[in-house]
Structures are given as structure tokens and as C-alpha cells.
Design goal:
about 100 residues; single chain; 4 helices; globular; mainly alpha
């Protein structure tokens, strides 16, 4: 019985977390998807990877949206998150060649 209640509580906490991240993402990131795409174009080494890196950036921003500090610049936070991720992805691409 106890483990069943623990399982329900964990699922509720996860659903709450996903719901909160979704709300933040819709509020903060969706209005800035053009910025994310421009950053993907700017920092991607190979043009054929731009779309993939763009999608990875959106996923990464969704994953870490709860870390954004509203007292700081949103555009700067998005830029830093995307740049770091794309540089990592570019490095992985280069290592595989």
C-alpha cells in the first residue's frame, strides 16, 4: 500500500513539474523562437545541422527553463544556453568524422 501511494506522489510531482515547465516554456521561449533559430544558424558549423541543432536547443531550453532567473536578461540566458549546447553538438559531430 505504502509503495503505491509513494508511486502516485512521484507521478503527481513529475506531472506538476512538466506542467510548470510547459507554462514557463510557452510564456518565455515560444515568443523567442526566432532568436533561437538565428542562434542555431549563427553557431552551427555545418548548414545541414541547423534544423537539428534548433530542435535540440528547444528541447534543452524546455529541460532547463526552471533555472532562468527573471531578474536577468531572457535573451542573454537563451543565447548562453543555445551557444553552449551547439558548441557541444558541433564538437561531437567533429569527433565522429
Amino acid at each position: 500500500m505504502s509503495s503505491n501511494n509513494d508511486s502516485k506522489q512521484k507521478r503527481q510531482a513529475q506531472n506538476s513539474s512538466v506542467k510548470k515547465r510547459t507554462e514557463l516554456f510557452n510564456e518565455l521561449i515560444l515568443p523567442n523562437v526566432n532568436l533561437v533559430f538565428r542562434l542555431a544558424i549563427r553557431f552551427t558549423f555545418h548548414p545541414q545541422h541547423i534544423e537539428e541543432n534548433y530542435n535540440e536547443c528547444l528541447v534543452n531550453l524546455f529541460r532547463y527553463i526552471h533555472t532562468y532567473d527573471r531578474s536577468k536578461s531572457l535573451a542573454n540566458w537563451i543565447s548562453i544556453c543555445c551557444r553552449r549546447l551547439i558548441y557541444d553538438l558541433n564538437g561531437k559531430t567533429l569527433r565522429w568524422k
